[in-house]
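Write out structure tokens for Short-chain dehydrogenase/reductase SDR.
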Amino acid sequence: MIKHLQGKIALVTGATRGIGKGIAIGLGEAGATVYITGRTLEANNDGLGGSLRETETAVREAGGVCISVRVDHSDDEQIHQLFAQIEREQNGKLDILVNNVYAGVQAIREGFGKPFWELEPSFWDAANHVGLRSHYVASIRSVEC
């Protein structure tokens, strides 16, 4: 297989499961060094499934290089530290940013089937804060790399 992304540095936020995990595997398979983030480092019984370690293993099995970084994307300082780490380890290089992190799954589970007017405004925050705001923050930081 030709590694079209050999030498490229990628960051996939929210890569513990689903689309983020699949994108990370594909980027690794194509030759990129892939940084992955999420809150779940090791597998647990949270009912959601997936972990950074599982994704990292899958990327490596696909022939890629993967670096797991536990990040709570609701905390701007942790996002700042993530980009500082990438800058330090990759000499300021970041070629690909995939903003995929989303933390509203649990909130949606709890509110599923209820009319929106029966949900507290905190439901909106839980479902959208990380997915919207952290994408903006990560995009700003990626330009600085």
